[in-house]
Automatic annotation (TrEMBL):
Residues 38-57 bind DNA. The keyword DNA-binding applies. Residues 15-75 form the HTH tetR-type domain. It holds the Pfam family TetR_C_13. This is TetR family transcriptional regulator. The keyword Ribosomal protein does not apply.
Length: 198
């Protein structure tokens, strides 16, 4: 099965210091929140100089956008692994579901990084909100292609429901009962497969 995972993946930074800043931002922003982590903290934790930080990123906003792009890259790589396994559409959809369930059950899980990032920026024109919207559109498109390959009678609607179910499970899995959230997510995914006649 071949499902297009566009947009193309951005390259990881080649400079070790730039990558270290990005990986530090990824950990701190996800664990503590984007706005609560200042530039000085990023610089100290990444063990780089202020000059190095500004040479590679220029501002905290650019690091934040790079963080969202990095999280998108991880999601795209997960979809690429699933589609490269040449699974049936039903098995691929189950693999997507299992990937979400694994994230919810992982130690240190704090919800969806994209929803968390968007929640910190009220301006819908902020670059972070734009990057999150792009990711979500990509995610819905990939799920639509997957449900279409599955033979679902309404693949667009099915994809929208799966995105919403994922959002709810990620939020409920963090703020509420992860077992209940995971069980509800499984029911939605199973229903999509059943609606396609599998």
């Amino acid at each position: 099965m071949s499902i297009d995972i566009e947009p193309p993946l951005t390259q990881l930074p080649e400079a070790p210091a730039k990558l270290r800043i990005l990986l530090t931002a990824d950990e701190l922003f996800y664990d503590e929140g984007i706005r609560s982590v200042g530039v000085d903290r990023l610089i100290a934790t990444a063990n780089v100089t202020k000059a190095t930080f500004y040479k590679h990123y220029g501002s905290k906003d650019r690091v934040i956008t790079a963080y969202v792009d990095y999280r998108h890259r991880q999601a795209a790589e997960e979809f690429a692994r699933i589609t490269a396994a040449n699974l049936s559409p039903a098995a691929a959809l189950t693999a997507v579901r299992d990937s979400i369930l694994d994230a919810i059950a992982a130690p240190g899980f704090r919800g969806c990084p994209f929803i968390n990032a968007a929640a910190e920026f009220s301006d819908p024109q902020h670059p972070v909100r734009f990057a999150v919207r792009e990711h979500r559109e990509w995610y819905a498109t990939v799920l639509e292609r997957l449900t279409r390959a599955l033979g679902h009678p309404m693949p667009g609607d099915a994809a929208d429901e799966l995105v919403l179910a994922r959002d709810g499970a990620m939020s409920g899995g963090y703020a509420g009962d992860p077992i209940a959230a995971s069980t509800a997510l499984t029911r939605v995914f199973d229903r999509m497969v059943a609606e396609a006649g599998h």
